[in-house]
Design brief:
With 438 residues, the chain is an alpha+beta fold. It has 12 helices and 15 strands. Helix 4 crosses helix 5.
């Protein structure tokens, strides 16, 4: 791993030096960020580090620290370690990463300034409120575009962290399934998930979606009922894990087995999802995978008799598939769950547009080796969208009694994290992690 990490740092140094030279700067300063507090309160929000900072080193809970990147020099870490008896201060720097940095420890945030002096123009990446006197983030657009475009392609070190994040999440998903089958509430399922992956809520890369029955029709269902429903028919759980600042993002839908119709839908979506995963290949336009997902949705709707009398082409063209599949097929994944750079046609930041009529797609680039994307088709029974469809002429093609029976289960979403490889088939981080559990 130390060799992979050294190569990772060398690549980041190369990218940064190139971006500095091409954007007219001499050095790069990166703020880790600051702790923020609720309005009129002394209670802090959960600290979220600058992703540019944690790209270099696995420090995710260290506000007021800084990185200085200079051509021809080792990266300098200005490490904030307060003398604090109210809270546990950060421990002394340790781990394989330490040997690769020049480390300066400070006890007051303002002390960082004296260690960030450079000759020439300094590019400073960070939020405006992370500023110190003489260190105001300027976030140069040209430099950021270069870094963001390249960050989409992960180094082997980064892929190792993401494999580990998938391995951490997979047993937790199985623990959530067992809790669901035992009749647990959404809150109890969530707690089972946390216990199995060894995270607390503050460690998660995003807030878990734990949706029983009809709640699965809410795309970003944000609650966790403490009381179990009288009958638990289906569980849709969208939950990830984090390792050294890198995320996994996995969704599974589980059935209690009481409906042949819903189980047939779940099986059909599983087949189509695997087919979409296989489309993740070098040079493929991700927008084409999204449009393929709509064609596959049409196939499922017709095969199961949910919609009748219309061709697959008509279901897509008349936007009937969008009623049942209203979101994008996925996104870039990495340091952020929705990793940045998804809409860039090139390294200068030229926008790459979304397909007409598909406003929620989060990635519009051609796939390249090292990109990690999610593939997450869904088919839902969302009342507000169904009501709009029912009021149109196309609504006559819908088997409404069947829809009403399936609506009791909410919907289906299956999401894997997938690596685009230089040659051949993609690497499915999620399926590999589940397979390793036997």
């Amino acid at each position: 791993m130390s060799t992979l990490y050294a190569r990772h740092l060398a690549e980041l140094q190369r990218r940064s030096e190139d971006a500095l030279a091409r954007s007219g700067f001499d050095a790069l300063a990166i703020a880790s960020g600051i702790e923020k507090f609720a309005f009129l309160d002394d209670r802090p929000y959960l600290f979220q580090p600058n992703p540019h900072f944690k790209h270099w080193l696995p420090l995710t809970a260290h506000p007021h620290s800084w990185l200085l990147i200079r051509p021809g020099h080792r990266p300098r870490l200005v490490y904030y370690q307060p003398d604090d008896y109210w809270h546990v201060p950060p421990s002394d720097p340790s781990g394989e990463w330490v040997a690769h940095f020049e480390i300066i420890v400070i006890s007051e945030p303002a002390q960082a300034r004296q260690h960030m002096q450079v000759d020439g123009r300094l590019a400073i990446i960070g939020e405006a409120d992370a500023a110190l006197e003489g260190l105001q983030p300027n976030n140069p657009e040209a430099l950021l575009n270069l870094l963001h475009y390249q960050r989409a392609c992960k180094t082997e070190h980064e892929l190792e962290q993401m494999r580990a994040a998938s391995r951490r999440a997979a047993p937790a998903h199985l623990a959530a399934r067992q809790a669901f089958l035992a009749g647990a509430s959404e809150l109890e399922i969530h707690r089972a998930y946390l216990a199995a992956c060894g995270h607390t809520d503050r460690d998660l890369p995003y807030t878990n979606i734990v949706a029983l029955n009809e709640h699965g029709a809410v795309l970003h269902y944000q609650y966790q009922d403490a009381v179990a429903p009288a009958e638990s028919r289906a569980l849709l759980i969208d939950a990830g894990a984090q390792v050294n600042g890198y995320a996994s993002d996995i969704t599974r839908t589980w059935s209690a087995g009481g409906s042949a119709e819903f189980d047939a839908l779940l099986a059909a979506m599983e087949r189509e999802q695997l087919g979409l995963v296989d489309e993740v290949r070098k040079g493929v336009d991700y927008r084409d995978i999204h449009l393929s997902a709509h064609r596959r949705t049409a196939r499922v709707l017709r095969a199961l008799g949910i919609v009748q009398g219309l061709s697959e082409e008509a279901l897509v063209a008349e936007r009937i598939t969008a009623t049942f599949f209203p979101h994008g097929i996925g996104h870039l994944l990495g340091l952020q769950v929705h990793d940045i750079g998804g809409f860039m046609a090139d390294e200068s930041g030229t926008p790459s547009p979304k397909p007409e009529g598909h406003p929620y797609l989060r990635l519009t680039r051609a796939l390249a080796p090292g990109m990690v994307v999610t593939i997450e088709p869904g088919l839902y029974f969302i009342p507000t969208l169904l009501n709009k469809l029912r009021a149109t002429p196309q609504g006559a093609a819908v088997n409404w009694p069947l829809v009403e029976r399936l609506a009791r289960f909410g919907g289906v979403r299956i999401e894997d994290d997938v690596v685009c490889r230089a040659d051949g088939a993609p690497e499915n981080l999620t399926r590999d992690a589940f397979a390793a559990l036997g």
